[in-house]
Prior knowledge:
single chain; 603 residues; mainly alpha; Helix Hairpins; 88% helix; 0% strand; flat
Amino acid sequence: MFDKMKIGMKLAFGFSILVVTIFITTVVNLVGYTSINKDTDELLRVSFTKVKELTSILDNVRTIAMSYTTIALADNENIIRAERYKISTYQASITGSMEVVEPLIINRTLWNKYINVRREYTEFIGIMDALIDSQNSQEIRNYIFGDFGDKQEEFIEIVIELVDFNQNDMDTFGEIIQSNIKNDIYVLLTVIIIGLSLSMTVAAIITKKITKPVADCVELANNLAQGNTNVNIDVKSKDELGTLCAAMQSMIRSIQAMYRAVQYLTKEVDAGNLKAQAGLTNHRGDFGNIIKGFNDTLAAVLVPITEVMQVMEKLAHKDLTARITGNYKGQVEELKINVNTAASTLEESLIQVGIGVDQISTASNEISSGAQVLANATSDQASALEEITSSLDVINSLTGNNADNAKSGLKLTDQAVIAVDASNEAMDRMNKAMDSILKSSQETANIIKTIDAIAFQTNLLALNAAVEAAHAGEAGKGFAVVAEEVKNLALRSADAARNTNSLIEEASRNSEMGSKIVEEVTHSFQQMKEQFNKVKSIVNEISASSDEQAQGVNQISNGITQMNKMTQQSAANAEESASAAEELNSQTIDLKSMVNSFVLSTH
């Protein structure tokens, strides 16, 4: 069915399904909403009103009971009067609520029971009012807490039973409404799901019917854009897309036909058949013009190639006067120029070869005679070079000995310089040691002076001790002996210090003299080192000169040897050149006969 519909009809059908689905969903929603609204109104108008009024009756009955209890316990007339006014007000309110509730009551049995209990309760109220009017407090209390109280409790219980029954009835009705709402929601969701599923199914079918041919056309166009003509498209629908696919299929067939024609021409050209032509019957419009262009191109290319083949055939048969004479354009004209230029160049080259052959023939004779003379001269020169080579070998040996002796002298000079450096280092260490001895002598002299001063002080102390011992008399004799010994010890210490000081001064003078001698010896070694360095420099120059001389003689010897080899080689080459010249002369004759076999413009 969809294949025969136009795209507009397909889209209209899809939108119609969607509109019908929306309409059905809306109708179902409105029906459900009306039912729910009716049930809700019934719940609010009936059940809620009953429960509300019955609850008001219950509250009023309880308030009346409280008022009667207050009257029974009160002694104030004003309080009693006020409570009785409240009781009458609440009774009137109960009557009003009953008038509202009575038409709405469902359970008539329970309501009749309520009416009977209320009538009895009203009679008990009349008795209570009479007792209140008599102002007999005790009887009022007995009645309230006795029969009246029991009847009042019975009335409250029947009111509570009515409230509970209607409350349960209202809850049940509310559950029914809630269940109806859920059912309506389920129905609505079911309708929506079915409608959406149907709409999506139809939309998917329509979309597939529209997008698949478009996708096929796009894929086909992409293949054509990439050069792939081996494609096909299946046309089924009768709408605009079917027409598009049929047009695409017709285009593919035209392109394939053109491709086959081009492939045929290419194959023939590859096979070397430039005369091939493709038929124009199966090609229309620009496609026919393209194939005709290929045919014309091959025909245009065939003319110059044919002439080039004719010229090349003449050139192959040694007719170098052949040329391309047709008028062409572009690269074909360049081909004509290049072929004619190649033929002219080849012809001129062979003409020059003929001229050169004559010149070579004359020159080869001269070369042959000259090569023989050169061979004789190079033999004499080789003998002379052998004698020079032997003399240079002797000179090279003597020069090598001189260079070796110079190097030995240079090594001895290096060793002498090293020994002088070692002696200088030893003299430096000796000089440092003499300085240390001199410093030690000076420090020892200072110590001796200190000892001498100590001996002088000790001597003074001994004299003072002797004086004190003399003043002490007999008691100081022992101390005088000790003082005398200390004095003698101090005198000996002073003498020893003086002698040691003299020796140290003599050692210091000797150390200073030794330092001067060390400096002189160091200076002498320095001069020796400078002289050895000069000798080393001279010997080094002699060694370098000897090496350069040896290298020069060696290079001369090598050069003479190389010259000898080259001379001998030249002699051999001269002999070979003579024989080659003779061979060249015979080949020149053959070449001349070959050049004469070509057809040339001038010779």
